[in-house]
Amino acid sequence: MNKLGLHANVWVAGWSHDECVRAVSQTAELGFDLIEVPALDPGSIDVDFTAKQLEKNGIGITFSLGLDESTDISSGDPEKLKRGEARLRDVVSIARDLNGSHICGIIYSAFGKYFQPPTQAGVEGSFDVLRRVAEEAAKSNITLGLEVVNRYETNVLNTAAQGVDMCKKIGAPNIKVHLDVYHMNIEEADMEAAILEAGPYIGYFHTGDSNRGYMGTGTIDLARAFKALVRAGYEGPITFESFSSTVVGQPLEGILGIWRNLWEDGYDLAKHAKAFTEVHLKSAHEAHKRGGAGLFR
Question: Where are the domains of the chain?
Answer without folding.
Answer: 4-296
